[in-house]
Amino acid sequence: MDKNKLLYFIKDKGYKVEEFCNAVGLSKGKLYRRIKNNSFTIQDIWSIGKFLNLTLEDINSIFFADYVS
Question: Who contacts 27 (Cβ-Cβ below 8 Å, separation ≥6)?
């Protein structure tokens, strides 16, 4: 999971983290726990991708990253 890339896309689309969380149905605490534990569900990933209008490549690079610096 590439936390920095997810946060980049949130800000790049013009959203604050709180706005984003409300839109995808996650509390801010739950978002950060899921980032920390890399425990996003398929439904979470689907909602995030749809809300941020991400391509499949973007989704893969965020949630299924092989290497994160």
Answer: 21
